[in-house]
Design goal:
Its main location: other. With about 280 residues, the protein is an alpha+beta fold. It is about 20% helix and about 35% strand. The protein has two helices and 20 strands. The strands form seven sheets. Strands 7, 8, 11, 15, 16, 17 and 18 form a seven-stranded antiparallel sheet that branches. The radius of gyration is 28 Å and the shape is elongated.
Amino acid sequence: MFRGFYTAASGMLTQQRHAEMLTNNLSNANTPGFKTDQASVRSFPEMLMQRMGQKVTTPNGKISLPMYSQVGLLSTGVYMQEATPLYTQGDIQETQLATDLAIVNGNLPVNQENGKPGTLLFVVENSAGEASYTRNGNFTLDGAGYLTTASGNYVLDDNNNRIRLNSENFSVSEEGMIVENNQPVARVGIAFAEDPYQLIKEGDGLFRAKKGAILANGYNTAGVSFNVKQGYLEGSNVDQAQTMTDMLTAYRTFEANQKILQAYDKSMDKAVNEIGRL
């Protein structure tokens, strides 16, 4: 009986966390460069149930041996193991702002271990002074003329230096070269993650590599091709219709587990307050 409580409760907790993840996806549907999360739901190891008994081996019944008969498998619940970002490219939308940049994927080598293509990201400097990565190209110029993200992180060039400009009167070529007053100033830093599923979300649309690793330079990686478009932004890759459907499914599953939990509670009430009187 108590095991049934735990199994139903684990299902409710899993669907609650799933719904929270989907809500976050939906709330970021209009965030440039946002990568939707996908839930990985796993079950706990199943238990093999057996019934214990005795088998009499002599006519007078003085000797008996233990006997086991298999009942079957019993599930012990589920849990949401992790939320994994989906790195497919979002729609490219025109903004006509000089400081807005978008990476348009070309050829991306496929990782041999997971069979998924890598991903390209802008290189920025986080609040700790370390390299972070983002697909959100909604940049701006701060008071000192540095190119920054909307949250104030410095955008870095391909040599990991901050990019400083005199005004918004600059152009960016498809190869990522920033030109101001007909002079090349810097090249926008773009990194290539061979296995993007090893990246960790930091918040504000930022990612970081595990254990402080530095991603490869996207310009120098063999087999990688892409374009940089000025005056454009990459939208999120959230499928709003599918996300709403998944949210309804999560709510219905939560309610089903809730009903089961209530049924167990009523059965326990009878066992304690009615059967216990006899």
